[in-house]
């Protein structure tokens, strides 16, 4: 610790969101056409987007430098004192900032 002050440990926040609610949200994010089923294309769409963002030269292949660029930048920005290590308060800034989304439609089981 650079400042000598003890670092407060991070504590995970509690949530009223159940596992079932979390899974319904996840399902809703994948089911783009809202037909209560996730097609193979819908399932792979997020991976395609993530890959395209990382494939900086657009050659359809992901070199390690492309893969690690965003992570190295994120680490450098978080490492405020530039010591090459992240204390808890610096690490906290690396958490993914998610935009609030409208709740997904409820999962409806298929009728037999």
Please sum up the structure shown.
By secondary structure, the chain is mostly helical.
3D structure, described in words:
Helices cover 42% and strands 0% of the residues. It has four helices and no strands. The chain is flat, with a radius of gyration of 20 Å. The longest helix has 15 residues, at 40-54. It is mainly alpha-helical.
Q: What is the H/E string?
A: HHHH
Low-confidence stretches: none
- Derived structural class: mainly alpha
Name the quaternary structure: single chain
- Determine the mean pLDDT: 85
Number of E strands: 0
Q: What's the N-to-C terminus distance? A: 60 Å
Q: What fraction, in percent, of the residue positions are helical?
A: 40-55%
Radius of gyration: 20 Å
Name some characteristics of this structure:
mainly alpha
Layout: helices, strands, pairs:
Blueprint: H1 19-30, H2 40-54, H3 64-78, H4 88-92
């Amino acid at each position: 610790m650079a400042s000598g002050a003890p670092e407060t440990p991070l504590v995970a926040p509690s949530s009223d969101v159940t596992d079932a609610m979390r899974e319904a949200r996840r399902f809703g994010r994948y089911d783009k056409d809202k037909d209560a089923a996730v097609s193979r294309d819908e399932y792979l769409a997020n991976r395609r987007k993530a890959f395209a963002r990382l494939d900086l030269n657009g050659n359809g292949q992901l070199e390690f430098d492309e893969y690690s660029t965003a992570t190295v930048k994120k680490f450098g920005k978080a490492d405020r004192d530039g010591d090459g290590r992240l204390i808890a308060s610096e690490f906290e800034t690396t958490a993914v900032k998610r935009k609030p989304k409208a709740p997904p439609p409820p999962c409806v089981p298929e009728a037999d």
